[in-house]
Amino acid sequence: MEILQELGFNLIRALQTLSPTLDGPMELFTILGRIEFYLLLLPFIYWTLDHRLAVGAILILIVADLFGSNFKLLFHQPRPYWLGGVKALSEEPSYGIPSTHASDSLAVWGYLIYQLKRPWFTVGVIVLVFLIGLSRLYLGMHFLHDVLFGWLVGGAVLVGFVKGQQRISAWFNRQSLLAQIGLGFILSAVIILIGQLIQALLSGIPDPEAWRAYAAGARTPAYSFTLAGALFGLVAGYALMKQRAPFSSTGPWLKRGGRYLLGIIGVLLIHFGLDFLFGAITPEETGLGYGLRSMRYAAVTFWVSFIAPWVFLKLNLADPET
User: Fold this and answer.
1) DSSP-assigned letter for residue 98
2) How far apart are CA 40 and CA 249, in angstroms?
3) C-alpha dihedral (232, 238, 240, 246), degrees to nearest 10
4) pTM score, whole prediction
5) What 8-state DSSP symbol labels residue 18?
6) Does residue 320 sit in helix, strand or coil?
7) Whole-angstrom Cα distance, residue 279 to residue 301?
8) Which one, of 43, 9, 45, 15, lies nearest residue 29 by Cα?
9) 139 phi, psi to nearest 5 deg
10) Secondary structure of residue 143 in the 3-state scheme
11) What mean pLDDT is predicted for residues 54-74?
12) Long-range contacts made by residues 211-214, C-beta under 8 angstroms, separation at least 24?
């Protein structure tokens, strides 16, 4: 590990000789790999392009982020700037390996490549995924092996998802509405349980004193409650949408734009409004706080997948899907 870290340090120092010239562009590429960006992008695909494509992309994002976040805890390794010797051009409270920016971007954009099969899109995405990974090195957030392992995780999730999607989707569609919603709840509970088990495994293993202060918030289980809530809201919402509000993602671009504007306002109001409201009830780093966090993300994906399409149909911003 020390050899890999030293190799990573040398590469980061070489990249940071270009600072501050490239600080802005690299920060931009990092933003394009954050969950908040996908919170804007994937609803756009769902409401205005193809809701089936978007559901697959959201699911693969949840799975990739889950694997990446669980591996972070299991490995509990430092970020480069925690050890000194490189500039911290950004800050992150979580552990280093793997880079979830790398795993998430490769899984999501790789899935879109697989589905769309457009040569120009493929080339652009490959460049984008590479630059997102490079930005994590440049900013001092990850070693090279963090990013490479992140791409490995994202690639494995992508391959497994693509191979199993058709059979799982066919089986899921044969289930009753109640069974589909129940399955979403069970899977969400499993995500939380796995997170709690990993927390228990790490409880007796302290971080090294040299960088323990940087990792003060790295062992939070918040990610598992976030992903569990997002999954349940998506599964329940999509199942209800197909039966109660089937809508067409196509249509005139004026209507598509209206759908996105109205929908994203709803996303922001739910996301930040509930964050403020729940924060006034209890601190997030409590059992109740984690539960409310899960509810908040469930509300966001439920709005995206079901409530917003139902509203679009009522306001004649979308046509029923034939």
Assistant:
1) S
2) 16
3) 170
4) 0.94
5) G
6) strand
7) 20
8) 15
9) -80, -5
10) coil
11) 96
12) 211/78, 211/82, 211/83, 214/78, 214/79, 214/81, 214/82, 214/93
